[in-house]
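Data availability (excerpt). The following record was deposited with the supplementary files.
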Amino acid sequence: MIRFPIVKVLALTGLAFAVAVAAQARRPAPVVLRCEVPDLAKSQLGARQVCDRFVVVFARVLQRPVVGAVSASGPSARDTLRVEITQPRRNAIEARLSGRYDGRTVARGPIAIDVMDRALAHQDVDRLAETLARLLDSRPRPR
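Predicted structure:
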């Protein structure tokens, strides 16, 4: 049996705890994205699928975990955003974004995607979500 003096055991335990705390501090807090899609309940796009796509795209663009919430109730966080997605016409989709992000109040939109020669598709939803998420992201972009 290997015996360690109590001082070494306490030092190793403290070091492991410090590493775990430091790793937790570096992990960004999740963003809560509340998704409201009143017009899309009967749309071919599907309300739940549209919200899920917004969550995935926001997480990729912001490089932070994003938690989706379909209703006004649900998880709360320091960074809580509300996106209202409507379909004003059969071949158009638009979104408004409001809430708090990185310690500031934000309000963006409406931002719209219109298509003329085809039906709306999921890639249109992705483009709309990416446009809104990039408006939030203040990091400089390489040109």
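Summary of structural features: Residues 6-26 form the longest helix (21 residues).
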